[in-house]
Amino acid sequence: MTGLQADDVDVFARGTALLGCGGGGQVEHMALALRRALGDGEVPVVPVGAGARSVIAVGLIGSTTVLEEKTPSGRELPDALAAVERWTGRRADAVVAAQIGGVTGPAAALTALAAGLPLVDADLVGRATPRIDQLSLFVDPLPAVTAAAVTSSGLRIVVDAPDPRDLETVWREAVSHSGGWAAFAIGPVDADVLAERAVTGSVSRALQVGRAASTSLDVDGLVHAVGGRLVTEGRVLDVQRGGDAVAFVHGSMAVRDVRTGAIARIEAGSEWVHCLVDGEPVASSPSCIVVVDARSLRPVATDRARVGDELAVFVLPGAPWWWSEPRRTARVSPRAFGIDAEVVREVAA
């Protein structure tokens, strides 16, 4: 693809919502802002390495629930990007989404539009994750990490650190005392580093998944159209929720399959990350476990599933980048989300 236009926004946002795997925040308000900002224009979308030598990754950190209630002014992400440029003395040639899943996908496109830069057809996850140190950029060490965050109250924080976990420590503490969420920018990332560490084709995938979902009439049609594997469809029998320092929101739900009577349990660590059917593991991150309403086919977040809901659960292939080496897989395994379970290898749909 060559550009993202206003007519693409609805399907793009639906695709990013599905790739959020139950996390990443609600996309509607950011999609509306992007559609209005685009007007008759477009955001150029370029492949990794297409002339962009210096790329800045952008995203959001903190509570996505607060983000829905205290919506962005529109300046937070561009201001974070500008802060990184000022601190490093390097201008960005392009913008890349820190993660394609959830609200960050449309937010990255909006940032690129505001900055007058192209959006790279890639991201650093291929789905959604709760922590910055889980981004593909940080699986292997970097000489240094330069990043800026701008909170909803206007506080600006620049961090120059050798360890991405320092970003988590500093920003989470600041966000908890300054509005509940923040926009961030990381970089600039050199083109050769991005080529090695990015999950490529993410914008195109979100559009493809969103278009397929928008034309589907039922669960079976949706799963077939997006190239997924159906795990279960039925009524929610039980929902458990808690919290921890690793995944922030931890819980599970049980669904009785309407066709077979089997009991599926889907476990969450901010996102849906592990699934069992009658006690046997059938899917896990880095595969994308997606839960949708069985009637509307809209994605269901981990904090919004309720007893009595009629839902469907299916699995999309995870980004091959995560499967290529064990150390990469470990960074987005169920245990990385706070779920004590082994990785389940992908099987054909």
UniProtKB/TrEMBL annotation:
Pfam families: S-Me-THD_C, S-Me-THD_N. Residues 7-160 form the S-Me-THD N-terminal domain. Signal peptide: none annotated. Gene3D superfamilies: CV3147-like domain. Residues 165-343 form the S-Me-THD-like C-terminal domain. It comes from the Bacteria. This is DUF917 domain-containing protein. It comes from Curtobacterium luteum.
